[in-house]
Amino acid sequence: MPKTIFNHISKIKFRGSENRDPLSFNWYEEDKVILGKSMKDHLRIAICYWHSFNWGGNDVFGETTFNRPWLLNPTSHKEALKKLDSAFDFFNKIGAPYFCFHDVDMAARGETVKELSENLKKMIDPLSLKMEENDTQLLWGTANLFSHPRYMAGAATNPDPEVFKCAAFQVKNMLEATHQLKGKNYVLWGGREGYDTLLNTDIKKELSQYARFLSLIVEHKEKIGFKGQLLIEPKPHEPTKHQYDRDAATVIAFLEKYNLRDHIKLNIEANHATLAGSSFEHEVANAFAFNAFGSIDINRGDPQNGWDTDQFNNDCKEMTMIIKNIIMNGGFKNGGFNFDAKLRRQSIDTEDLFTAHIGGIDILAKALINAATMIKDDYLESFKKSRYQDWNKEEAQKILAGEISLDDMSKNIIEPKPKSGKQELLEKYLSNITD
Ligand code: XUL
Ligand code: CO
For ligand 1, atom 8, which residue shows the shortest CA distance? Predict the structure, then answer.
């Protein structure tokens, strides 16, 4: 057993809802079967490498606060291996079947893209070995195209084609690494694909550069035979004032215009949805409505802060509706729940990383149990069915099939009788299940 920062912590076990030991699950029982599938297979939990292992608690005003010794020497391959030991010790103890990482989280820092690519290559064998030993799989890989100064004016959408080429090189390397590691998905988050001011920006040019970039990735994916799903992660702003991938609907329309719809789906992040002025539930439902749902980055924002606080999820009611929707649409295929959530800067005890994830995972487990109850009840679904039932009538079906013109329709107008939407009754039902 290698030396890690978590050696003193034991494997987290399920101990039931009455147990008060914070280092145990109250609800998440990985082998418990719900609607014919284990909790583990329903939720497909992943831990993110960046917030938990590659960030020391620094913010725009202050320095690092956490005990992450490897961060003191970010250019050292040896330290990257120590980070790997601690990360896998954590994955194993928390019982997460998946993880996600950026190239720059895993590899020692390189000043040039070529140096980064060499450093990443050196990590693949030790990483594969860890994955095998711990039976941990890669939910998705991604390239960081937003931290290095070369990307300050965007990656694919940069006015300088040399920056576009660097970004393409980084994605090629990371896509190939994800393929080699049998990743289930590859994620593209357009961190700086947007603008800070329209005084210096040509939107039309930048969007067509972005579309070309994505098409190159699709072509390369097919060339190397990567069978995983490509995903775009919408976010409206931060770090840029306006990000082109602002929300699910915007990305879907963009993909449609550039004939990329069959190749790319969405990774919906809870806090990004609320930053875009929508609910998390809306973004997930919209992705499903357009057959574009892929995976989830789970976290939450703070209602009083207008930025991406990436806090651990704590709303069981909201999660019940999300999980119900996922199950009713056939469950995750390649996707899962990736904990793109970070500790508060004052949470400096090593245990805090455990309790944060345990709390978030328990909320998902409890929400899964609630969702199953609601699906069995069929209360909401049968209400919805009866609400739309008049669309099954012959004339309504003909309208939908395009067989009735406006003129014909106008000949047979009956003043409709309003019906209650019953929102309070339905909310009462939801509270009875979840509160
Ligand atoms: C940023 C964000 C990223 C992506 C991966 O807001 O969510 O961590 O998930 O680049
Ligand atoms: Co994310």
Answer: 340
pLDDT tens readout for residues 30-82: 999 999 999 999 999 999 999 999 999 999 999 999 999 999 999 999 999 99
Domain-wise residue ranges, the chain: 33-377, 394-434
Task: Judge if the beta carbon of residue 142 lies within 6 A of ligand 1.
Answer: yes
In the residue annotation, 362 being an active-site residue is answered as: no
pLDDT tens per residue, range 103-156: 999 999 999 999 999 999 999 999 999 999 999 999 999 999 999 999 999 999
| The two structure tokens encoding residue 246 | 């602002």
* Ligand 1 atom 6: residue of nearest CA: 308
Residue of 102, 148, 179, 357 with catalytic role:
102
Give pLDDT tens digits for 176-208: 999 999 999 999 999 999 999 999 999 999 999
Length of the chain in terms of residues written: 435
Q: Which residue has the tokens 């082109």?
A: 244
Phi and psi torsions of 417, nearest 5°: -100, 115
What's 33-377's CATH class?
A: alpha beta
**33, β-bridge pairs:** 38
**Nearest-atom index, ligand 1, CA of 238:** 6
Cβ of 308 less than 6 Å from ligand 1: yes
Query: How far, in Å, from the CA of 338 to the mean position of ligand 2?
Result: 8
pTM above 0.70, yes or no: yes
Tokens linked to 270: 């809870």
Going by C-alpha positions, the residue among 362, 376, 352, 420 that lies closest to residue 52 is 352
Report the nearest-CA residue for atom 5 of ligand 1: 189
